[in-house]
């Protein structure tokens, strides 16, 4: 980058002349409509058609007769947008006027899913829009299918953020969701010769009607350079950071509508821009690549989402992304949201920044820098303020997933922040020494700075030291967090640690995804459940009503048929619509144990082809997988290959025709989840106990009437407790048993030797039966299972097969199964993200 950072193209209010184009808030007018929105007339079909055609003609610049599906989709989206706009503007005005505390949700990921359907639901325009489109000769489903979902997240963590902002809007809690507007979201997965191939997700290429750029709120972010400490006139030490280079953060606003309550909150996602588009002198000299180099470097920051899930990426660009978005967000709130004369000693009364995992933790030294270097606070006072303004959510138990940044890199990119972190650490370690004199081992263990293998900053420790509260995401996880991940910290500050069990939004994952079930629920218990999910309890008596069970089964069957049709059209898969639908969808990760599911399938197939079990005795099942693997996670990609290879052979073998089929539709995302989950009979939640922090997929399934087969892990524990043991298929080692086996020494090959069925299953896999005789192709997975098996798949194999036999037996009694499924729905209201938000408000935010 250039040494002399060019002045950014930001027009501030201090612009000395009037002939510059002003971006800042420049005009005031006394027009009667100046301070309130023009309200869209109450929706009617006629009005909707007229607005839609107007958007098509005047917004898209085309005629209905000439328009493409994309034109129509964009015009429909802009029509729906109009019905939200007045509420959005009014919510903004109301939020500015009241002095209520705001939740600043800081998350590097938001896995939003499609917007059109959700916004039609929020505005209660679904039916009007459908009829209006029919009048125009348009099938609204085709337009919905045109939307590319914003895949600005990897999986559970990003989807959680999306559920949380939905709930806060529905509860009318002031919230700004802060994140990154990645130009390319999570890659699109395709399969070639059964192997995952990643295709860039250019989700913005056909236009995005849901975002609003706000150049008047852009922010300048600095990187690199050096710091200098001087003493000012009052004898106080002042630090100045002279950065090397800067980028502009351009905010894009997204509507976050509450459910039919007139509230629309804001999601503010940052896009990186160069301070200067290009260097005209260099351009004129003919070196075009050099002329745009600075621009490319700057804009790379928000170019692409790192496709890693549960494993951190220690890359410089990743750190740039993290600092970029939190620096923009803090600046946005302190300088552009609070009144200019706001007394920052009261900052915590107006904001709580919730750190969604460690990705935004660099916000802590950034706030210290703002307070001390820019606003002139003394260190201690700044620290007091900072501690009250942050809370931290930990999302993992895997030690390898805890983010650590090398001090060398951090110091090079953010020299002032590294100094601040060192000082925070010094003062913290003093506190530890005072509490535990003479225990230097403890001091070293708790230090925010690790010294080996290189000097590095432990971001989870920094978050824990600074945050007012630290929470895990399910009861078991929070307990293990206290006992295993951060035991020294929980002993020092027991009151700092708390739990908030995750949840999912019932709007998207029940009402929108499962219209048939929703209509049945509403007919039966009224529609209050959509915003008060505990009301599902009222369904319990209907579990014993044969007529209701019949209706419930009809809903499930119709959902299965919808899915079968979709997978035929989308993936060319031919699936029997009557079989039990056994679904495992989530990121591909060893700890989640997709291989255990695969071994189950192979063992069933093996039973039949070896003649041990007559095909007629096998419960017809369709196994569905959905999973993306991080592109650099080689073993995960081998597992994907093997699932596809097994699917090919099982689906083509007449010996199991009509009994076993395996589907692995590519590109599992929110849109596909909305189709798959409502159709599922069985939910696979089979992680090794003590490894899955919570899971939220498990909640979506239970709420849609699937029964769970699962380990005692994450939120499975709470699901089982609530729905009841008889309605949940528990298997496998508990977390203490896993610990004990680890301590004893686990030898997977010994398990293999001792269980003939496991041996036969693995031998069939290893023989190359599923890979055209190619034994090499299966070796990476098979060898790993036999010689390493870090997540104890073989150790839980027997228990898993036994539990699956119980599943078969239960499924043979449709009435008992439906009863259990209904009770799963009725007793899962606790897993609404509305409840999670209430818990955050009560235990952490006090907003
Ligand atoms: C809910 C969801 C997840 C999280 O699933 P888990 O089973 O909890 O890991 C991941 N991806 C998508 C698309 C989801 O909707």
Automatic annotation (TrEMBL):
<keyword id="KW-0663">Pyridoxal phosphate</keyword>
<feature type="region of interest" description="Disordered">
    <location>
        <begin position="1"/>
        <end position="22"/>
    </location>
</feature>
<keyword id="KW-0328">Glycosyltransferase</keyword>
<keyword id="KW-0808">Transferase</keyword>
<dbReference type="GO" id="GO:0030170">
    <property type="term" value="F:pyridoxal phosphate binding"/>
</dbReference>
<feature type="modified residue" description="N6-(pyridoxal phosphate)lysine">
    <location>
        <position position="700"/>
    </location>
</feature>
<dbReference type="GO" id="GO:0005980">
    <property type="term" value="P:glycogen catabolic process"/>
</dbReference>
<protein>
    <recommendedName>
        <fullName>Alpha-1,4 glucan phosphorylase</fullName>
        <ecNumber>2.4.1.1</ecNumber>
    </recommendedName>
</protein>
<dbReference type="GO" id="GO:0008184">
    <property type="term" value="F:glycogen phosphorylase activity"/>
</dbReference>
<dbReference type="Pfam" id="PF00343">
    <property type="entry name" value="Phosphorylase"/>
</dbReference>
<comment type="function">
    <text>Phosphorylase is an important allosteric enzyme in carbohydrate metabolism. Enzymes from different sources differ in their regulatory mechanisms and in their natural substrates. However, all known phosphorylases share catalytic and structural properties.</text>
</comment>
<dbReference type="GO" id="GO:0005737">
    <property type="term" value="C:cytoplasm"/>
</dbReference>
<comment type="function">
    <text>Allosteric enzyme that catalyzes the rate-limiting step in glycogen catabolism, the phosphorolytic cleavage of glycogen to produce glucose-1-phosphate, and plays a central role in maintaining cellular and organismal glucose homeostasis.</text>
</comment>
<dbReference type="InterPro" id="IPR000811">
    <property type="entry name" value="Glyco_trans_35"/>
</dbReference>
<dbReference type="InterPro" id="IPR035090">
    <property type="entry name" value="Pyridoxal_P_attach_site"/>
</dbReference>
<keyword id="KW-0119">Carbohydrate metabolism</keyword>
<dbReference type="InterPro" id="IPR011833">
    <property type="entry name" value="Glycg_phsphrylas"/>
</dbReference>
<comment type="similarity">
    <text>Belongs to the glycogen phosphorylase family.</text>
</comment>
């Amino acid at each position: 980058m250039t040494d002399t950072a060019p002045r950014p193209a930001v027009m501030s209010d201090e612009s000395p002349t009037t002939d510059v184009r002003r971006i800042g808030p420049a005009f005031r007018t006394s027009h009667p409509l100046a301070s309130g929105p023009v309200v869209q007339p109450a929706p009617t079909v006629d009005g909707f058609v007229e607005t839609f055609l107007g958007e098509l003609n005047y917004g898209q610049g085309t005629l209905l007769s000439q328009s493409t599906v994309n034109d129509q989709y964009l015009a429909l989206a802009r029509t729906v947008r109009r019905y939200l706009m007045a509420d959005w503007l009014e919510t903004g005005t109301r939020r500015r006027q009241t002095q209520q505390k705001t939740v600043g949700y800081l998350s590097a990921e938001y896995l939003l899913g499609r917007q059109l359907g959700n916004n039609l639901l929020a505005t209660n325009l679904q039916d009007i829009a459908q009829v209006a489109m029919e009048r125009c000769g348009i099938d609204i489903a085709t337009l919905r299918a045109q939307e590319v979902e914003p895949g600005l997240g990897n999986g559970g963590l990003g989807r959680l953020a999306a559920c949380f902002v939905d709930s806060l809007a529905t509860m009318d809690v002031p919230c700004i969701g802060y994140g990154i507007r990645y130009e390319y979201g999570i890659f699109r997965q395709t399969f070639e010769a059964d192997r995952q191939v990643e295709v860039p997700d250019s989700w913005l290429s056909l236009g995005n009607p849901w975002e609003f750029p706000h150049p008047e709120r852009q922010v300048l972010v600095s990187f690199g350079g050096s710091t200098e400490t001087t003493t000012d006139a009052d004898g106080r030490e002042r630090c100045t950071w002279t950065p090397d280079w800067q980028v502009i953060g351009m905010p894009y606003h997204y509507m976050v509508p509450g459910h039919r309550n007139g509230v629309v909150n804001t999601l503010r996602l940052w896009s990186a821009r160069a301070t200067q588009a290009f260097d005209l002198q260099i351009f004129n000299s003919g070196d075009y690549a050099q002329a745009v180099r600075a621009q490319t470097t700057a804009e790379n920051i928000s170019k692409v989402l790192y496709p890693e899930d549960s494993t951190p990426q220690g890359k410089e660009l990743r750190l740039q992304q993290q600092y970029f978005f939190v620096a923009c967000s803090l600046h946005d709130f302190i300088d552009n949201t609070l009144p200019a004369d706001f007394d920052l000693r009261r900052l915590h009364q107006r904001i709580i920044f919730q750190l969604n995992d460690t990705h935004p933790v660099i916000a802590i030294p950034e706030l210290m820098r703002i307070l001390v270097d820019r606003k002139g606070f003394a260190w201690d006072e700044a620290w007091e303020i900072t501690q009250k303004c942050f809370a931290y959510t930990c999302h993992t138990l895997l030690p390898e997933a805890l983010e650590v940044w090398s001090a060398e890199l951090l110091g090079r990119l953010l020299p002032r922040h590294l100094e601040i972190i060192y000082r925070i650490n010094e003062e913290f370690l003093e506190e530890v020494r005072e509490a535990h004199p003479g225990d230097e081992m403890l001091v070293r263990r708790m230090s925010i700075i690790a010294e080996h293998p290189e000097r590095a900053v432990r971001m989870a420790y920094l978050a824990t030291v600074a945050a007012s509260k630290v929470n895990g995401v399910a009861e078991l996880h929070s307990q293990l967090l206290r006992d295993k991940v951060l035991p020294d910290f929980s002993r020092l500050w027991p009151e700092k640690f708390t739990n908030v069990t995750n949840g999912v939004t019932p709007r998207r994952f029940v009402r929108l995804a499962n219209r048939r079930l929703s209509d049945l629920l509403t007919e039966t218990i009224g529609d209050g459940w959509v915003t008060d999910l505990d009301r599902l309890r009222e369904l319990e008596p209907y579990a014993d009503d044969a007529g209701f069970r019949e209706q419930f089964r009809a809903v499930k069957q119709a959902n299965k048929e919808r899915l079968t049709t979709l997978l035929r059209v989308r993936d060319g898969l031919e699936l029997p619509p009557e079989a039990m639908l056994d679904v495992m969808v989530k990121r591909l990760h060893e700890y989640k144990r997709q291989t255990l599911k695969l071994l189950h399938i192979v063992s069933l197939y093996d039973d039949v082809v070896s003649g041990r079990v007559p095909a007629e005795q096998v419960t017809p099942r369709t196994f569905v997988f959905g999973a993306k693997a991080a592109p650099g996670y080689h073993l995960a990609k081998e597992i994907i290959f093997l699932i596809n290879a097994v699917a090919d052979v099982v689906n083509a073998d007449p010996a199991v025709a009509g009994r076993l089929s395996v589907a692995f539709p590519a590109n599992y995302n929110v849109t596909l989840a909305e189709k798959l989950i409502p159709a599922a009979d069985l939910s696979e939640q089979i992680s090794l106990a003590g490894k899955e922090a919570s899971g939220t997929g498990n909640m979506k399934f239970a709420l849609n009437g699937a029964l769970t087969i699962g380990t005692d892990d994450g939120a499975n524990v709470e699901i089982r407790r609530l729905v009841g043991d008889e309605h949940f298929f528990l298997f496998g080692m508990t977390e203490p048993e896993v610990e004990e086996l680890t301590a004893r020494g686990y030898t997977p090959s010994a398990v293999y030797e001792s269980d003939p069925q496991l041996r036969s299953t693995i031998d069939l896999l290893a023989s190359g039966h599923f890979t055209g005789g190619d034994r090499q192709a299966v070796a990476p997975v098979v060898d790993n299972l036999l010689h390493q098996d870090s997540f104890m798949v073989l150790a839980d194999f027997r228990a898993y097969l036994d539990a699956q036999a119980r599943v078969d037996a239960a499924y043979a009694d449709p009435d008992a199964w439906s009863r259990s499924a209904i009770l799963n729905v009725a007793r899962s209201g606790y897993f609404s993200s509305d409840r999670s938000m209430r818990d955050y408000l009560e235990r952490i935010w006090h907003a």
